[in-house]
């Protein structure tokens, strides 16, 4: 949907690369993200900035600012994805103006904006906050959080498992956030007794060597410190030539003691780690090759019935709104995983996935009548593609508790002058910060 579009075609100016039909447009994508794309005067192709996803029924203040060198897209005072490459000026065709409330393609009006526009201003200089058209802009539903010092390990005998939500936007736009996350994990694993780090998929946004290399640079923090980690692939990680397997396939983990094997597709794997009184099995179930790897996955579970198991896959549950409440629902893949791998395998006590926009969790009973915790952790549609938030789960065998926390090392490292009203290192709402009673001895009596 077009909000503001420059009339004319880039092709008319002999700009032959990129989207030739568009000169400049501020639009809403099918994923409800704000897109600003423009052909600058100094380049022969268009440069694009993206925002997080917006919510229907809310007012937003958008600002696109070029300082003479780079362009920044800001939503309610927050720049989601940093600055663009060097961009000078905006290409224009003499005698052509702007369309308000519509996009343009091939010199014809295209999709109209289905919303309300309060005011549009185009200025020849950056505006200060005092000059904003909507004073003190805020989202209607502010993120709940704080910057308190919350311990991740409440007793020296406890231990943590850490889950890294979809990193695709960091690999694409904000590699400094991914570096911050993994550098923190590398430096704080021993202190917080983090026994395993599991990536839930969508390591990159698209099959770009730049993005793969950014992810590899960040992962190197873990490799250098010999920090245990496992990786699931997401839908954005599949491409011709299997780049995920090239970078994160079985060969990468061959010399890691905890890694015990891979599936026929190469995308699935299983690992065993010792923590507290138990040996835990982590089973990576690949979303694309679920059917191909299904019998292999069953065999792994059948051969390790004595080990408490966590299944990690990119696609299992998603958030569903019912009666103004967000609940968890099984996707098609998730239902198959439940029916074939979870329900009748009593040792599976937790599943974790990403993929879907939002955060939710639920507890279901398996065929034996025991609880299975299911979590969706994915922040890519919020600030800066996730603002560096990680999910930690602390296991307290003595108190028979599980503690779930959401933390961002990126925000903690942020200078005060750069912090905005959404920059919390701890998320504290009931979906991000909660605890569960957990009778380890009873739940893990598996034979």
TrEMBL record:
What is an example of a GO molecular function annotated in this UniProt entry? hydrolase activity
What Pfam families is this protein classified in? Laminin_G_3, Metallophos
Domain Calcineurin-like phosphoesterase residue range list: 161-331
**InterPro entries the UniProt entry points to:** Calcineurin-like_PHP, ConA-like_dom_sf, Metallo-depent_PP-like, STPP_CPPED1
Source organism, top-level taxon: Bacteria
- What name does this protein carry? Ig domain-containing protein
């Amino acid at each position: 949907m077009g909000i503001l579009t420059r009339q004319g075609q880039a092709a008319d100016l002999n700009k032959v690369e990129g989207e030739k039909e568009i000169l400049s447009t501020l639009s809403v994508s099918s994923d409800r993200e704000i897109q600003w794309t423009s052909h600058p005067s100094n380049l022969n192709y268009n440069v694009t900035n993206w925002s997080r996803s917006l919510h229907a029924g809310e007012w937003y203040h958008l600002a696109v600012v070029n300082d003479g060198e780079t362009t920044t897209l800001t939503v309610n005072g927050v720049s989601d994805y940093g600055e663009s490459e060097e961009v000078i000026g905006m290409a224009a065709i003499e005698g052509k103006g702007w369309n308000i409330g519509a996009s343009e393609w091939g010199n014809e009006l295209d999709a109209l904006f289905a919303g309300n526009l309060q005011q549009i201003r185009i200025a020849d200089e950056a505006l200060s906050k005092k000059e904003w058209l909507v004073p003190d802009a805020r989202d209607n539903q502010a993120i709940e959080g704080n910057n308190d010092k919350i311990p991740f390990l409440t007793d020296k005998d406890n231990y943590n498992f850490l889950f890294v939500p979809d990193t695709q936007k960091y690999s694409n736009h904000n590699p400094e956030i991914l570096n911050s996350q993994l550098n923190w994990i590398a430096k704080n694993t021993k202190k917080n007794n983090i026994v395993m780090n599991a990536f839930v998929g969508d390591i990159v946004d698209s099959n770009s060597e730049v993005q793969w290399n950014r992810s590899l640079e960040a992962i190197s923090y873990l490799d250098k410190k010999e920090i245990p980690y496992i990786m699931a692939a997401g839908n954005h990680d599949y491409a011709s030539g299997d780049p995920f397997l090239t970078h994160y396939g079985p060969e990468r983990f061959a010399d890691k003691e905890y890694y015990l094997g891979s599936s026929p597709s190469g995308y699935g794997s299983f690992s065993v780690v010792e923590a507290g009184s138990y040996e835990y099995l982590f089973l990576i179930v690949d979303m694309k090759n679920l059917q191909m790897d299904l019998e292999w996955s069953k065999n792994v579970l059948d051969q390790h019935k004595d080990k408490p198991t966590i299944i990690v896959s990119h696609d299992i549950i998603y958030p569903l709104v019912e009666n103004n409440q967000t609940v968890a629902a099984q996707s098609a893949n998730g239902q198959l995983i439940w029916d074939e791998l979870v329900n009748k395998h009593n040792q599976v006590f937790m599943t974790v996935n990403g993929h879907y926009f939002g955060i939710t969790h639920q507890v279901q009973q398996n065929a034996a009548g025991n609880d299975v915790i299911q979590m969706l952790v994915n922040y890519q549609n919020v600030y800066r593609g996730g603002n560096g938030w990680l999910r930690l789960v602390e296991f307290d065998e003595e108190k028979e508790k599980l503690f779930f926390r959401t933390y961002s090392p990126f925000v903690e490292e942020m200078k005060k002058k750069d912090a905005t009203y959404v920059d919390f290192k701890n998320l504290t709402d009931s979906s991000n910060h909660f605890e569960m009673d957990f009778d380890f001895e009873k739940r893990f009596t598996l034979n």
